[in-house]
Amino acid sequence: MPARQPPVPIRPHLPLNALRSFEAAGRRLSFTLAGEELGVSQVAISRQVKVLEQWLGAPLFIRSTREVQLTPEGARLLPQVRQALDMLALAAGQVSRRGRRNVLAIQAYTTFAQRWLIPRLARFHEQHPDIEVRLTASVSPVDFDHQDVDAAVRSGDGGGWPGLEADFLTPITLLPVVSPLVLKRRKGRLPAETLMGLTLLHSLARPNDWETWLRANDAEQVVDSRKGLKFESSALAFEAALQGSGVAMGVEVLVQSYLASGALVSPFGQPVRLPGGYYLVRPRHRPVSVAMRRFRDWILAELDTAAGTDG
Q1: What region does 276 belong to: left with phi over 0, alpha with psi -120 to 50, or beta?
Q2: Which CATH class, in words, describes the domain spanning 16-95?
Q3: Would you say 203 and 237 are in contact if contact means Cβ atoms under 8 Å apart?
Q4: How is the chain split into domains, by residue range?
Q5: Average pLDDT over residues 209-218
Q6: pLDDT tens per residue, range 232-262
Q7: Could you tell me the fold of the domain covering 173-273?
Q8: List of residues 6+ apart from 259 with CB closer than 8 A
C-alpha cells in the first residue's frame, strides 16, 4: 500500500484583497493615498478595511475627519501582513515571466563587476539579445531566499555554501601593482627597496591581502602591512595606484588590462595564489533556466579565452 500522505493543514479563507487594502492604508495612514496607490477609490479602501475588521472581530483604525490612526490591534497586525505580502510578491516574481523578457539577475563583487564583468557584458548581449542581464554589485553575502538574484560571483574554496551549486571561475592570485611613473621617480632603485619606500594602498573589502603577500615573499619584517591608505574597494585602490599615490595589492584577473596596457606594472616579487578562487554560485533547488545556462556557459568560455591568451 502506498504511504499515507500527511493531512493538509486547514487554512482559514483569508480576505486577501482586504489585507492588501489594510496594508496600504496602514503604511500610508490614509485611505485616500492607499486608494491612489492601488488604483481604487477611497470608499473602496474603507469598505475593504471594514470587511477585514468584521472578519477579525477587532477594530484596526481610529477614524477622524482629518486622519486615521492604527489601533493597537492594527499596529500589531501591520508588520506581519507587510512581511507576508512581500514574501508572496518575491515568490511570484521568481517564477513569473508575464510581461517581461528573459531576465537574469546577477550579483558580483564591486571590483569584479567593474574591472572584469562590465567590459565583457556587451559580448554576451550580442550573442544573446533576448536575455536581459540585471547586474548589481555588493560585497555583502547574497541571500537567495530574500533577494531577487539568480546567481552571484563569490570568492571561497567551493565548499562553504550549503544548498548552492558552485562553478569555479578563476583563481585569485595576488600581486602588487604600481604606476611606472612612480618607479621612474625613484630613479631605478631595486624592487625590494622601492616597495619599502612606497605607500601601501589597502582595500577594506580584502583586508588581509597585503599581509598574505608579504608573508609569502618573506617581506613581512621589512614592510609593515598595517600602514598606508585604505579604500572601500579594490577598484578605488587601483585608481589611487594609477594616480601615483602608492602601490596597491592587485588580484591578477582584475588588473590584467592595466598590466597589458602598461598603466600599472608589478616588479615586486612572486605572485601568490590563494586557496580556492572566484565561483559562480546559484541555489541548488531552483530549476536552471535557459538564460542561466547560457550565462554560465558564456562566462566560463570568456575566462577560458582569457586564460589561453595569458598563457
Answers
A1: left
A2: mainly alpha
A3: yes
A4: 16-95, 102-171+276-310, 173-273
A5: 92
A6: 999 999 999 999 999 999 999 999 999 999 9
A7: D-Maltodextrin-Binding Protein; domain 2 (3.40.190)
A8: 177, 265, 266
